[in-house]
Amino acid sequence: MSKGWCTTTIAVALGLLASCRDDGGAEGDGDTACVGAKCDMLDESGSGDDGSSSTGADADTTGGESPMVEAACYDRRLEAFNPNRLAFTPTALRWSCADIDSTPADERGQEYCEYFAVVSLPPTPANPTPEPTVLGRLLGADGVDGTTPVQLELDGEQIAALENSPDSIVGACVFSSWNGDIEAPCGTECEAGDVLGVPVEPEVFRMKFDANTNEAALTLLADCTEWLPPGDPSDPDDPFQDPFLRACQLNTEINETQHRKSDNVICGAAVRMAECGCGLADGSSLAEALAPPADLGFRLGGWSGPSELPPGCRYQDVVDGAQTLVVCDLTAAEVLQNASEMKAWCRESFADDVVVHIAVDPAAVTCTPTPGADYADDCPMYPWVLEP
Predict the structure, then answer these.
(1) CA distance 102 to 109
(2) Positive or negative, the Cα torsion across 286, 25, 267, 106?
(3) Which helix (H) or strand (E) covers residue 173, if one does?
(4) Residue 119 neighbours by CB under 8 Å, 6+ apart
(5) Which among 134, 53, 385, 141 is positioned nearest to 243, based on CA atoms?
(6) Buried-most residue among 12, 149, 253, 385 (CB within 10 A)?
(7) CA 291 to chain centre
(8) pLDDT digits over 193-230, tens only?
(9) How many C-alpha atoms does 169 have within 13 Å on its Cβ side?
(10) Which of 266, 265, 177, 268 lies closest to 220 in space, CA to CA?
């Protein structure tokens, strides 16, 4: 973008992006159709459970002011720079599995991490060999495809059995970052044991949303590397001096997913690496290094480390060391108290602490900023580590 960026607020800037870009920006005629990456939208209320306005449904990216976009970008920025849960580190890009509050129940799982519950009820005289129940698992590539039943139906005998053994483990929350387009080396029948009687096989445990794929991750990385956002580095009042907001407005135009944590973290790091001329020392693909097609998916860990899980959780993968399947135990008391929607309890209890990690190898990345290029004069040692 040349000098004189035509805005005083991020909301106005996002609305005018298509008309203010110069020939060096992304090609386009104002069409806001998703380009290859995540496209499913949130509800139209514009209000989350906590009263926030983080949603993509009301975002106006075709012209005019867009307060919903502004709110979403700033909400995601606050999360990314939480000092106890930093999204950008020298060795990893991170975000939690928890969807933002305004995500509808049947669309949870939009952060390259889908989750559901499994319950195996104790035997009763009426049902001595109960089958395990899978609750809230996505059924297809879009939210309209629905989920398995959300509510756990209990009769009097089952309630009594749960009450009589409140500390017994009868349920589990399952978190998966196994990409929907990556096949298991073991085929359809894997020797990974089972979760409370449910075999760990692709049909059940692999992610379903078409956005939760390796292809989508590679496309997002490529788009945010190649379509650098506009801004005016010489204008102290330009809101896009902030690298996170710069990337958020680009992600808004490309995908309209400004409400997602994952997309903004990925795009933020990719934009800054491109601005600072970063690549791999061996000349191989930077996008594929960050989202390797050979992996089942991004690894799951915790905030304290890439292999540190919350208490009560463990890995249970179809490939040793993949770290794409996490199982967290649920007691009979938890199942009984949350039978109306176990998936919501999984989100409340574990999702904020089960963390998606994109590994970055600083030793493999070389950065050579182009003199005079926008935002290239202040490139830090690790350009992907955005700072508030």
Answers:
(1) 12
(2) negative
(3) strand 169-176
(4) 132, 133, 135, 152, 170, 171, 172, 196, 330, 335, 342
(5) 385
(6) 253
(7) 13
(8) 999 999 999 999 999 999 999 999 999 999 999 998 87
(9) 10
(10) 266
**Closest among 32, 14, 37, 29 to 216, alpha carbons compared:** 37
Beta-bridged to residue 305, according to DSSP, are 302
Q: What is the pTM of this model?
A: 0.84
| CA angle at 144 for the pair 143 and 146, rounded to the nearest 5° | 75
Token pair of 145 as six digits: 């495809």
Exposed / middle / buried, residue 199 (Cβ in 10 Å: 0-12, 13-18, 19+) = middle
The closest of 335, 304, 292, 345 to 115, measured between CA atoms, is 345
Contact 118, 193 (CB under 8 A): no
206 neighbors 214 (Cβ within 8 angstroms): no
